[in-house]
Amino acid sequence: MKFLNGGWLVRDGYSVKYAANIYDADIDRDGGKLTLYCPFGSPIYNAGMTLDGGILTIEVTSPRENVITTRLINFRKDRSHCPKFQLNETNPAVEIAEDDEKWTFTSGKTTLEIAKDETIDFKYFFDGTEIAHSGWRAKGLVNDPSGRLHVTEQLDLGVGEKIYGLGERFTNFVKNGQSVEIYNEDGGTGTEQAYKNVPFYMSNRNYGLFVDTPAKVEFEIGSEKVSRVQFSVAGEEMTYSVIGGGSMKEILGTYTALTGRAPLVPDWSYGLWLSTSFTTDYDEQTVLDFVDGMAERNIPLSVFHFDCRWMKELEWCNFAWDENKFPDPEGLLKKLHDRGLKNCVWINSYVGQKSPLFEEGAKNGYFIKRTDGSVWQWDKWQAGMAIVDFTNPDAVKWYQGYLKKLVAMGVDCFKTDFGERIPTEDVVYYDGSDPELMHNYYTLLYNKAVYDVLVETKGEDEAILFARSATVGGQQYPVHWGGDCSSNYPSMAESLRAGLSFGMSGFGYWSHDIAGFEDEATPDLYKRWTQFGLLSSHSRYHGSTAYKVPWLYGDEAVDVCREFVELKAKLVPYLKSMAVETHETGLPMMRSMVLEFQDDPTCEDLDTQYMLGSDILVAPIFREDGVARFYVPADPAAPTSTWRNLITGTEYEPGHWYTEQYDYHALPVLVRPGTDPLNVK
After folding, report:
1. pTM strictly above 0.85
2. Which parts of the sequence belong to the Glycoside hydrolase family 31 N-terminal domain (predicted)?
3. Which member of 484, 494, 524, 563 is catalytic?
4. Which listed residue (153, 186, 218, 417) is catalytic?
5. Mind listing the pLDDT tens digit for each residue in 444-490?
6. What is the topology classification, in CATH, of domain 615-679?
7. What are the Cα distances from residue 198, in Å, to 88, 181, 227, 468, 664?
8. Separation of alpha carbons 619 and 614, rounded Å
9. Residues 6+ apart with CB under 8 A from 237
10. Is 420 assigned a catalytic role?
11. Which class would CATH give 267-585?
């Protein structure tokens, strides 16, 4: 939220008051809490100045070692009906000290120094090195033109400092200069909107910032005050944590220890997933023709995905197979299993009015309601659709009951589509949750409900989703894919940028629609995106109006598909070893170059190449002429050693840029010196 008019004035319709200094403080060493009381406007010099001005209460605590949490409070409100992220708090021992100049609060190697001065000054250190600072006119309250109150805070943005993360964002990988709203929306991949918003970023100055609320958080990253990162939340309070570490890897590990880490996923999920696509016509014969066509062309297939139209139109979701197309669904699923395949079916959390489930859900109070007690409905997506209320335990059991019937039929996993268009006005939840806070939080309840079914029926080792929406903690219910991308090179590049940001936000696995979702891909794009897709953690062909089987894009597309499916199959032991690292440390399988090579300045801005795990560098090709421009970093453990192309065997000196042309059977996929990803035991 921007509220300033240049460096000195406030925008028309806005008003702002800043916390001035710290007038008083309470130290609770047994409880590990430092509480500060700060007047607004100007420092208090006498008792008369304590009248009519108000104070900002600041509580400093630590939920885990090296995490220092600050809660800014204007008026204390009842928050019992506010959904909140479930954090893994350990309540570590902290040190709180005071002298004539400052208070210090230390958790692990991370220390906050708070000056006793006429202005509020917060300095954060890790192992003695300053990592973040909040100073003059940083903490305050803003009234917007509607009269709504917002709590705001700012941290300095230093020279050369760069900010990463904030969820799966399709904008520039480095977030400096951007205004970012943490608010889940279904906007495709070509806009500043995002399906997966996470109020967490990392700085290359070795700190992370997590705003602990499911509410809309508005970030201004050098976009209002160019030397500050500003963030604000509507309401009477805001809680945020500064996470210290020796590297961004270490910070990401601490953040995921706090918010949850990705589980291991089944081995078969690393193979190729083939979809029917979205609005295409298909029936049992179409499915078998696709599956058998892949086998006839010697292309290994792992999962077949049934998109929306396994159910009747206008009845999404009814969880019932369209008997005109699939008269024997159990028999079809058995045929797929007999061919060695797993299967996935599309679902969402919406129920159209024509669905037989609508009356049942409405009668029993299983849907989100309006304030007048009626079912909340609209026509965007399905006619008269309602939304399942996952705050109602009975609604969760009801929804899960239909999924369990599908699993009993032979369904192996679910694509949990949507979950972003969740209303905030004229809305009542079963448990009384604040609708504005439920907008982002809803996806967590939705995906958890589905994931829990698979854990219960399949076991933890076999549970996996293909999810679109997410928020903090959603990394515990993988896998996520990148949403509705277009069939062109810019969209392929924006998808990669988003995946890299997603990985910098605590999520371990990521996929995307190979060859693009919207429109029809050219044979050239199909082959280039196939290379990229099969060198991602998870790989799926999917589209909107066009089938994505390779033979429709030419004989060479068949060959390229086969070659890269086979390459990925050889890499599965390596990918599994990387997944263990993801599960244990929170590091993503697809890593930005700066995350893996933080000390190399050239890597700070790279968003057209990435590391697949720790040992494979991938630079997808984004041009019809087959030209790739890529950078080879120096391995800190072997700074002069060469990298080797996994496909061609060509060697590359570190510390250089290369521009090369490739046919469709190769691309820059380089192996880190001293490693052999094809021979991981």
Report:
1. yes
2. 58-220
3. 484
4. 417
5. 999 999 999 999 999 999 999 999 999 999 999 999 999 999 999 99
6. Immunoglobulin-like (2.60.40)
7. 17, 10, 23, 14, 36
8. 15
9. 71, 72, 73, 74, 76, 77, 151
10. yes
11. alpha beta
